Amino acid sequence: MITVLVPNDYSSNADHALRFAMQLASEKPVRLVVFQVGEILIPTSTPYDLYKELYPEKLKGKVQDLRNHVNKMIHGYELPLLHFEYDWADNSNFQEALEKATGKHKPDLIVMGTKGANGIAKVLIGSNTVNSIEKSKVPILAIPQNVNLHFIKSVSYASDLREIKSEMKVLVKFANHFDWAIRIFHVLPNYPEWVDPSKENIEYIISELKESYPDQPFSIELIPTKEENDIIKGLEIYVEKFKPDVLVMFPSELTFLDKLLQTSKTEEMAFHSTVPLLVIRH
After folding, report:
1. Does domain 2-144 bear CATH number 3.40.50.620?
2. How does pLDDT run across 40-76, given as a tens digit for each residue?
3. Domain ranges in the chain?
């Protein structure tokens, strides 16, 4: 059974991501851990003996509130393949709490909502989801707030064709579990060009993948852009043309200098994406 961790702060954005996560259990069993971060405030003047009584009661109440919130969301629905668990972290630092929760629950996937932002707004408002994408070793599925709920039939994997074999090993595990077809696409021109994207070369790549994963459906598209290395534009062209259920990206490890000079393509898409974005580090 796959384990999915879903942070929830009672916002409409977080609830939307939780509903999306629930749909993952439409055909296959899922252990869904609903996770919340906050602070339990007890006056410092409280005697220690009383504090020891109050703290567990307040923590229990927080977990029950979270459970009640989810129960209202699922009232009237039959979800036999969905197994709910609840966790509440007393912590003022979301990233720290999330890291501890992943160590505790060992999730295969984290599902989070994202609002998106442009320009200076993304610098000012920050984003727990984007920060998590940058740091988490667990795959994260980011759900934009304006995306309609839908069942995932296929995922679109953005590849530079350099690490396609190693990345595919990871992606196929999710695809096999949820019965997703994999649609590969490559944006060009790209420098340095790791793999010659000629017709013969592309056909060879697909034939190798089909030989390695005979039961997994594959397809591939080349997306031309006007400027070299215009990856974001290529992603936007693909999304507009093919309307993918989910966009999949494997972020590269940028050097310190790269981070100063450019924005990660994955983080950029997390802010701008109009489709769910699955980010996998391997």
Report:
1. yes
2. 988 888 888 888 889 999 999 999 999 999 999 999 8
3. 2-144, 154-245
Distance of CA 13 to the CA centre of its chain: 14
159: nearest Cα among 221, 243, 246: 221
Residue with tokens 């509440």: 88
34 strand-pairing partners: 6, 86
> CA-to-CA distance for 107 and 33, rounded, in angstroms?
8
CB 116 within 8 A of CB 272: yes
Q: How far is CA 274 from CA 110, 144, 148, 167, 279, in A?
A: 19, 6, 10, 23, 15
State pLDDT tens for residues 250-267.
Answer: 987 544 334 434 456 666
d(CA 129, CA 11): 14
SS (H, E, C) the chain: CEEEEEECCCCHHHHHHHHHHHHHHCCCCEEEEEEEEECCCCCCCCCHHHHHHHHHHHHHHHHHHHHHHHHHHHCCCCCCCEEEEEEEEECCCHHHHHHHHHHHHCCCEEEEEECCCCCHHHHHHCCHHHHHHHHCCCCEEEEECCCCCCCCCEEEEECCCCCHHHHHHHHHHHHHHHCCEEEEEEEECCCCCCCCCCHHHHHHHHHHHHHHCCCCCEEEEEEECCCCCCHHHHHHHHHHHHCCCCEEECCCCCCHHHHHHCCCHHHHHHHHCCCCEEECCC
**Two structure tokens written together for 125:** 């408002």
Interior angle at CA 99, CA 95 and CA 103, nearest 5? 170
- Mark the ranges of the chain whose per-residue pLDDT is less than 70: 116-127, 253-273
**For residue 106, how many other CB atoms are within 10 A of its CB?**
12
